[in-house]
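Q: A reviewer asked whether we had any structural model of the full assembly, not just the individual parts. We don't, so I'm hoping you can provide one. Inputs are below.
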Amino acid sequence: MKSLNSRCTYQRGFLVALWLAIAATAYAAESRVALKDAFKEHFLIGTAVNRNMVTGGPGFRRSAEQNAEDAALVKEQFNQITAENDVKWALIHPREGKDGYEFGAADAFVNFGLSNQMHVVGHTLVWHSQTPNWVFAGTNPPPTNVAAGVAVNTNTPATNQFRRGRFGDGFSGGLGRYNGPRASREELLRRMREHIHTVVGRYKGKVKSWDVVNEAIADGGGTNILRNSLWLEIIGPDFIAKAFQYAHEADPDAILRYNDYGLENPTKRKKLFALIKSLQAQKVPIHAIGSQAHVNVSISFEAMDQTLTEIATLGLPIHITELDVNSAAAGQRGFGADIANNAAKTQGGLVSDADKKLTDAYAGIFRAFLNNRESVKMVTFWGANDANSWRANGKPLLFDGNSQPKPAFDAVIAEAKKRAVAK
Ligand code: G3I
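A: Here is a predicted structure for the entire assembly that you could use as a starting point for your response.
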């Protein structure tokens, strides 16, 4: 009898504890402010999403339950989404020809955004990375110095050197640069036009903004504005103008962006200015600057504010396209995001006092966004929570791996409230 009683008491205690836990979770979710609401008067707040968040089920690194929780977080907090990978050439158009497209995952992504009333962004149409080799292949022999691994028209060492690393996956941005016989300029332009017309045309009116050209500017202090790439070598510098022209033909209402990283660096910013002014002088249909903002905890309010104030003088809206703040000790040297150099920057431990530094960095960054709210129209995080981040080791986002808000989340919300009071 005693043991039955104690079992009942134990079960009652367990049920009460369970109820309290459920109630606490529900309370936390219900009472939690949403980023999209806190900033609704200023800019859209978005996130990159991966395939399993929108298709459900288990996936790379996450269980089915975790993917469902991640999707719930996306719906709760964000009013804009970007596909982290599924619209890249290698995934949406892996083989040559009309039958070479794989639209399943991209369709699921677009439908997820539309059914949740989100602004949907397409990433990306023309990039030196994640483009299958067939795109560049043809019958023209490659220049001999390129085949030998020495890039013609190079900028600084390593600008266009792809090493085998975490992201080495068999495409031109992964295992190494394609060195076989090449397409002619006309052939490559035809392929580019067909790709852009097909992809942009399929989502016309649904995908509202496109990263038309991604990361075409050279890193470092060399004199070349453009990164050495097969697009540049085969077509010439007007590959950028052509890509924008084709995208505009395919959807004249879409917002077309040039997207790059490291614009917090004044040297890279100078190159951005040269490129964009030249496109503007040619009347190329470019409608926004995408600044990726893969920064680290050493970023200051002043550096971000200066970056945005200067970019705004180009007269185009600014979209922050891939925001994250690296806390990994090895990631504190710069603001690069070249995938070839990423792996090393996410290894090792965190900086000391990482949570506080992350909180302070995010507060400063959002103060700068709000300070430039006339030009900043969209802020997209590169991942919804730390578990999904491309640099998960650096714990760079506002939500931890269990989608719980970190102190940096509160700091960002506090900046929105301060601005609302100051208005
Ligand atoms: O999904 C497969 C999985 O099935 C497989 O088991 C695993 C084995 O390595 O790979 C998984 O795919 C990886 C994918 O990320 C999903 O995590 C690819 O190998 C990997 O190449 C891919 O990396 C992406 C990278 O771009 C290259 O395209 C990152 O997720 C993505 O965050 C990153 O995003 C870029 C932006 O597009 C442009 N700006 C810089 C930014 C960061 O590098």
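A: Points you may want to mention in the reply: Residues 22-27, 147-174 have pLDDT under 50 and may be disordered. The chain is about 40% helix and 15% strand.
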